[in-house]
Fold each of these.
Amino acid sequence: MDEAALRGWLAQASGDAGLRITALTRLSGGAIQQNWALDVELGGAAQRWVLRTDAPAVLAVSHTRPQEFSLLSAAREAGVTVPAPLFLCADSSVIGRPFFVMARVEGVAAPHRVVKDATLGGGRAACVAALGRELARIHAIRPPRADLGFLGDPPADAALAAIAALRRRLDAAGTPRPVLEWGLRALERKAPPPLPPVLCHNDFRTGNIMLDAQGVAAVLDWEFAGWGDPHADLGWFCAKCWRFGQVAQEAGGIGPRDAFLAGYGLPVDAGRLPWWELLATIRWAVIAADQAARHLSGQERSLELALTGHMVPELEWDVLAMAEAL
């Protein structure tokens, strides 16, 4: 990364010609995007920021950084606990890729730490209740929204649209996945009727939530957000594949499902949740296969991406069991 070019751009964007970069370090994680810890001296005071930009190989379904910046701004205005969005560079002239800068938030996001530490978020039940409230604030954002016009028109039927999107991705990958196709057909046969659309985070799960001892520090990673059925986010968070070994804690491996839904507070059709949890499992299997393909193609050699592909068979076993019980 061209640190001198970045410093010059930040100085202009912040209005402080004397801005200095005191540290720039890539953060761990971020299989789809890159995050950099950015420490600066601005107006004589130390500031702790995060620079977020694209990974070398991007997923076509991921929003651009300018679009994610808009989503972060809309969420913050709606009262969602997110890092403050600060500056956006929409072109590639500075560091070779678009990026944005946001305030750095302190806390724990690593999922295997989150699910094992019952003190985070004020205790398990309190934590998932707070997460439910965050999700309700997200779902309070409804179309139409001129600032989110890039999301397009809401699908007429979010459930059938989700099935069709996953089928397209399986077809594009070219690798036969008969279990996942069978699961999609089971979903198609029992698809729920459509509901009025809301903004769905579409990756609201343990690992994308930062917690501290008091509660929720930040909801992160908005690159997949879009209009849809609110049960999609509820099912994604509660799906077994996102419990990180703590299967009995049905809300993200953190706490009880009832406490999460009580915190959410909006009407929930419990009969829809198993359908969306099955779709979540299939979706994660498709994403895991795509991540492995990024490594195998040579676009982005990564042990993390390669190991992600090894999750697919276990997810397929879950798909078989869940489809039978649907």
Note: Residues 111-325 form a domain with the Aminoglycoside 3'-phosphotransferase; Chain: A, domain 2 fold (CATH 3.90.1200.10).
Amino acid sequence: MNWTSPAEFFAMGGYGQYVWGSFGVALVVLCAEWLLLRQRRQAALSQVKRQLILREEESR
């Protein structure tokens, strides 16, 4: 497609709301996934640290 203006590009031939809406939803989902992965990683690291401390105390 050839667009002669930015408005035509963003309108996407009348399908802009679906195209940009899909990009928006995908961006939100990817950001949520990144935040959830970061949270799970921190929880796993905390659990490993607690286990190491407990093992160290048990071995004394």
Note: Residues 6-58 form one domain.
Amino acid sequence: MFSDIARFLIDIFFTLFGAVLLLRAWMQNVRLAPGNPVARGVFQATDWIVKPLRRVIPGAGGIDWASIVAAWLVALVFLVLTLAVIGGNPLMLFPMGFAIALLTVLKWALNLLLWMTLIMAVLSWVNPSAPAMPLLYQLTAPFLNPLRRVTPRLGGFDMAPLLLFVIVQVLLMVVARLSATWFGW
């Protein structure tokens, strides 16, 4: 029972922190105004790990590589701690652990996209003038706009979020299968 609770807490903490690191890279990629309260909170929560990495890993091509590498390092620590809690030898992660950590980061990114899209879709029905809507629209637009060009509007409903849910769920299944195949999780 203790190991189940510990795994749950490790999973929650590391998944949330990894998602925040990916959100930081995502916000910088879409050029979200740094004065935004959400952006300020994300930067404050992640500066301690990203700023030192940025000295070694500069951004390139509009991508904040330091935040992405930080998320990958967090995923590695997550895998080591999870394996230690279930009684495994963390050394058995190497060398495949590096690839599994990359798949973990990809899973976090896909889940983040899924949740952002879900929150935006629900808010668009419940309170379309909510203060979070411009932020959510700016973050999800790079994924939804291409889908909006190919999906019809049915009775005024935007079907792009539904299509994105399906695509992301399929990708999550692929990532889960790859992780299970490589590591047996």
Note: Strands lie at 153-154, 157-158.
